């Protein structure tokens, strides 16, 4: 694997479906120096706290056949919405700040949601994708993971 090169003034998005860090490289490609530009934290309690109803029942025509309907995972739905909002924020960032390079680091599920929601203009700026959750790490640890 080749070493990831993050150009000067490139942006790094680190997100996990609940928290998003928008970082900018003030250093150069050899020695990245990430600075926090913006942090978004979503209030997304566990699914058990978001939905209180029991799963519904589906009845098939006449007779006694019935089955339960899978319970809605409100937590997952909120994470999908958060990924769409993050993709919209990345589009605004690329458009307004004329971002030339973008690195995205997110867990696999969040990364998949982001890929689906990213605008084509943003997709052309993505220089690397890292399928790892780095949101709970301090900046110097994020820099180490990206430089490894």
List the helices and strands and how they pair.
Elements: E1 11-15, E2 19-25, E3 34-41, H1 47-50, E4 57-59, E5 66-68, H2 74-97, E6 102-105, H3 108-117, H4 120-123, E7 126-130, H5 139-147
Parallel strand pairs: 1-6, 6-7
Antiparallel strand pairs: 1-2, 2-3, 4-5
Identify the notable features of this structure and list them briefly.
5-stranded mixed beta sheet; 24% strand; single chain; two-stranded antiparallel ribbon; alpha/beta; 5 helices; Nucleotidyltransferase, domain 5; 7 strands; 148 residues; elongated
Describe it for me?
The chain has a single domain (about 10-45, about 75-145), classed as eRF1 domain 2 (Nucleotidyltransferase, domain 5, 2-Layer Sandwich). The chain has five helices and seven strands. It has helices at about 45-50, 75-95, 110-115, 120-125, 140-145; strands spanning about 10-15, 20-25, 35-40, 55-60, 65-70, 100-105, 125-130. The strands form two sheets. A five-stranded mixed β-sheet has the order 3-2-1-6-7, with helices on both faces. The protein has a two-stranded antiparallel sheet with strand order 4-5. The protein starts with 10 loop residues before the first strand and ends with a helix. It comes from Rhodoplanes roseus.
């Amino acid at each position: 694997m080749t070493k990831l090169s993050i150009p000067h003034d490139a942006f790094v998005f680190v997100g996990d479906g609940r928290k998003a860090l928008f970082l900018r490289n003030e250093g150069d490609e050899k020695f990245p120096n990430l600075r926090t530009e913006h942090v978004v934290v979503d209030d997304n309690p566990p699914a058990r706290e978001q939905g209180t109803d029991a799963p519904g029942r589906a009845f098939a025509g006449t007779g006694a056949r019935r089955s339960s309907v899978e319970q809605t995972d409100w937590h997952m739905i909120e994470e999908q919405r958060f990924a769409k909002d993050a993709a919209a924020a990345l589009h605004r960032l690329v458009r307004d700040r004329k971002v030339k390079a973008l690195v995205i680091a997110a867990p696999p599920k969040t990364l998949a949601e982001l890929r689906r929601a990213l605008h084509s203009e943003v997709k052309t700026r993505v220089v690397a994708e890292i399928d790892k959750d780095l949101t709970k790490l301090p900046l110097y640890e994020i820099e180490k993971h990206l430089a490894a």
